[in-house]
Amino acid sequence: MSARSPLGEYRPGSGPLHRLRPGAKLIGLFLFATAVVATPGPIWTGILLAAGLGLAIAAGLRGRDLWRTLRGFIFIAVPLFAFQAWQHGWERGFTVVGDLLALILAASAVTASTAVEDMIDTISWALRPLRPLGVRPDGVALAFSLVIRSIPNTIAVAREAQAAARARGLERSPRARLVPLVVRTVAHAQLTGEALQARGIGDD
Prior knowledge:
mainly alpha, 2 domains, globular
């Protein structure tokens, strides 16, 4: 059983975002986040939200793919907007929720337009100047890669544990869901470690 990563999936394409180097996209995402923080107010929020949506569409996120990106955020956005609007007015609620959504759309655009391998290579390249300080760029990049690739597996295990608990009438029992999740996740990590050790990775 597989599951989609909450980080989104790479969508091959030939648009301007796909042709841009991963490092440039990461810098652009940082600048976009800085703009979101530095420009409060509903007008700027609307502008940045439109920009984030445009980036997502340019990265190939349309229809179901775009809805899949937004669907999980709705459960947070609705109560968050209601609380902020009740406390500070609708403008504040729109600003808070809109800023978060703009960031999610921009980050999803980066993920959708960048292959995981390219992103990992960029991280490894960026860390090379830190070699004199004892940082191992290849090891850090490998760690990032393993974490990213393990997220869908962990989500799938969690769903299977939840389904098994429901089948036994224990859907309200945290123990029935958490114990299988922890055991299987640790087992997967151990198997991954053994596979890496068998290839001589991490021995030094």
